[in-house]
Design brief:
The protein is α+β, with helices and mostly antiparallel strands. It has a single domain, classed as Sandwich (Jelly Rolls). The chain contains 6 helices and 12 strands. Strands 1, 2, 3, 5, 9, 11 and 12 form a 7-stranded antiparallel sheet that branches. It is globular.
Length: 257
């Protein structure tokens, strides 16, 4: 379970690093399933001809990781009592290969979370309709040279203020190549790298600004999964602070300062 100091840091910084969210042995089984299902030959670097491979992977190891007690408990600490949904698996994998060329997908962004009725675009609103958290699940050891995800600490607070004028309607954001219309805060500040060991998970506020890492000079692929924690509704931002989830509390405090 997350300690009180970690919970406070989440509200202020927008993320928490949960070490050993699931065993490294489970992460290894996830990697092998990903290699098999995404057509990756781990033994032949000559066949790594693209900088990144994405895809949904399934199997018992993925379900075991998603249901790990430490991970599920930490999600509950951050999102209860908002209506979050347990993950059936780890969702979409992103496998990055050693590459010196710009892969073209490393821009700063926040993830979209819902599609309005009658609109095929994906949006984000100030109540984060449909999304409670972003998980960055490390399925291989990730060091500074392994193209770790880049995080802008505290950016979730400014993002809440930038989204607020659009109200519940929200704004179209980055999703499957669509053009984002969401303004971003200053991205020149200090950057945190999502580094750690296989089995670690970064639990990120849905408004945390982040970007893919680059370049990737090491000699082995980097495996992560980055599933959302879905919600059946949206964040509850009204009422006493002690009855709000910590995800909602961060938004509420951002909007009143």
């Amino acid at each position: 379970m997350l300690r009180a100091a970690q919970l406070d840091d989440f509200v202020e910084q927008g993320y928490v690093h949960l070490r050993s969210a699931f065993p490294a042995s489970v992460a290894q089984r996830c990697r092998l399933l990903a290699a098999e299902q995404l057509g990756i030959d781990l033994a032949d670097p000559e066949r790594w001809t693209t900088p990144v491979v994405r895809g949904v992977v399934d199997g018992a190891a993925l379900r075991e990781a998603a249901a790990a007690e430490a991970l599920v408990g930490a999600v509950g600490q951050l999102l209860d009592p908002d209506p979050w949904q347990r993950r059936p698996n780890l969702g979409a994998f992103v496998v990055r290969f050693p590459c010196a060329a710009d892969p073209g997908d490393t821009g700063w962004h926040v993830d979209s979370s819902f599609r309005p009725d009658g609109d095929d675009r994906w949006f984000v609103n100030v109540r984060s309709r449909g999304r409670g958290l972003l998980l960055l699940c490390l399925l291989s050891d990730v060091g500074p040279d392994d193209a770790p995800t880049r995080i802008l600490p505290g950016s979730h607070l400014e993002m809440a203020r930038l989204l607020a004028p659009a109200g519940d309607a929200g704004l179209p954001g980055a999703h499957a190549g669509q053009r984002s219309e969401i303004p971003l805060p200053d991205t020149s500040g200090p950057v945190q790298l999502a580094t750690g060991e296989a089995g670690d998970v970064f639990l990120c506020h849905p408004f945390l600004v982040h970007a893919a890492g680059w370049p990737h000079p090491t000699r082995h692929p980097r495996f992560i999964a980055q599933p959302p924690i879905a919600m059946s509704g949206a964040l509850e931002l009204d009422g006493p602070e002690d009855r709000l989830s910590l995800v909602a509390l961060a938004v509420r405090r951002a909007l009143v300062t």
